[in-house]
Amino acid sequence: MNTQNATHPRAVDPAIVFTSCELMAAQEPRLATAAQSGSGSAQPAVKRREVVVKGRRVKTIDVHAHCLIPAASKLLGEDAYKHHTGGIVIEGQDATTRLRAMDVQGIDMEALSINPFWYGADRDTAAEVVRLNNEGLVEICARNPDRFIAFASVALQFPDLAVEQLEHAVKKLGLRGAAVGASVADDEFADPKFHPFWRKCEELDILIFLHPQGTPDLARRLKGNGVLDNVIGNPLDTTIALSHLIFEGTLDVFPGLKICAAHGGGYLASYMDRSDHGCLTFPHRCNRTLKKRPTEYLRQLYYDALIFTPEALRHLAANVGSSQIMLGTDYPYPWEDKAVDHILNTPSLNDDERIAILGETAAKLLRI
Length: 368
Prior knowledge:
The protein is built from 14 helices and 12 strands.
């Protein structure tokens, strides 16, 4: 990471919260305070797990790992900060704690991302949040360059500003791609207003990590037991976003886009063939001719492997191609603490496919 070109090198709060896409307030609070990397309390040493496939040491790369820069989130107020940490800093930790967890799981590198909580902010506030996020990420990665890389934050509610931020983050700060939500307020990413941003992503040839933010329009129906706003709402949010990018022709306009969708891409790949039949069944409701069948676009997108079971991973690989799938943990949220074993133990995969999913594909896309 290039830290010398940051415009405000010491304005970054060095504290970091390694947080997840939705923290559980019910989890026991951890009293450790977020601190600078390497300054945490002593912990028992662990042997770094080395993953070997076909007699070859594999560099494992996790493309779905969260963190938070407290100074940035606090710009939107203490309530916003508490909302994004579940009210308690349950994962307040220095990098030593996270590195230890990575060593146990067999994760060599993480691509850090910050879920966009600033899409409703005004232009000046959003610009400052993004600056703090990106410079903070650079600082974290610079301390552990062999373990962390990061996706840039961008203020997509102002597409022109997002273009400037992305170019600065990639060309000046050395960040490897961009992390985005699945929509901005009431606007889908397929809206032409976002075309300048997608054009810049294609020009820079970077990976975009698309992470859902739920479906607030369905809040009433997703109340009750079962965490449905997350369990159903998040993958549905991704499914809607990807479907619009396909059906509105965004992927035709920008065929070089490299988008990685979290959580296996939501539900789309599990019922993909219905997408091919919609316009055949209801032609009067379709006003755009695509260059390919809708299902064919799924093979040019990328997905993380956070789908829990060997059968789910087999099904995803069969529908989109194993070359499009990468390791993802959603760390530190405890959805899956054996993500590496999930890939190693899926019997339908051959060793070359395992190597690609564990890290080879991510290394190419992220230039590692």
